[in-house]
Amino acid sequence: MLKGKRVVLRPIEAPDLPAYVRWMADTDLLAYFGFYRPMNLAQEQAWYDRQNQDPDVINFAVELDGHHIGGTGLHLHDHKNQGAEVGLFIGEKDLWNQGLGQDILRTIVDYGFAQLNLHRICLRVFSENTRGIRAYEKVGFVHEGRFREAEWRHGRWHDLLLMSILRQEWEARR
Question: pLDDT of 112-129, one tens digit each?
């Protein structure tokens, strides 16, 4: 279990899956996160089973005051160069715009650098996701590039931004 200022990151358990089904059916959440279509419980169960078998994927349920509110994780995609990609979401929309995303991100980034000995953590974000971009910048992520029209979603092409933070940048901020 990892503790942030307000959030707790804990392992995802099978009883959490119905919340993921509900969140992944929310069009507001799907605008910037997740799959291009909602997932049913059987598909979430298959995802859960796969991620539990993959040593390169570390996923957490996010809790606030004992309530499951979202998820976060790291994909260890570059062992030789100690790199990983991070992702996160808050499924409970009434908790958006409260700084919780920054708390989640700080907690998992610290885990990645301090416990997993990572050198670089990156993320991809839709260029229209200004709320997410602001949060990532506040945590210390810097812009590296733009993948033009990289993903088709909601009837049009979207640019993806690549952002990252290096261990020395993280340690300098602490």
Answer: 999 999 999 999 999 999
How many angstroms separate the CA atoms of 138 and 20, rounded? 27
Contact between residue 165 and residue 140 where contact means Cβ atoms under 8 Å apart: yes
Report how far residue 39's alpha carbon sits from residue 53's, in angstroms, rounded to the nearest whole number: 20
Tokens 């839709």, located at residue: 126
Predicted confidence (pLDDT) per residue in 13-55, tens digit: 999 999 988 888 887 777 776 666 677 889 888 888 888 888 8
Task: Give the total number of structural domains in the chain.
Answer: 1
CATH label of the domain that carries residue 60: 3.40.630.30
Range of the domain at 124: 2-173
pTM assigned to the model = 0.91
Tokens of 83: 């790199």
154: nearest Cα among 25, 30, 26, 24: 30
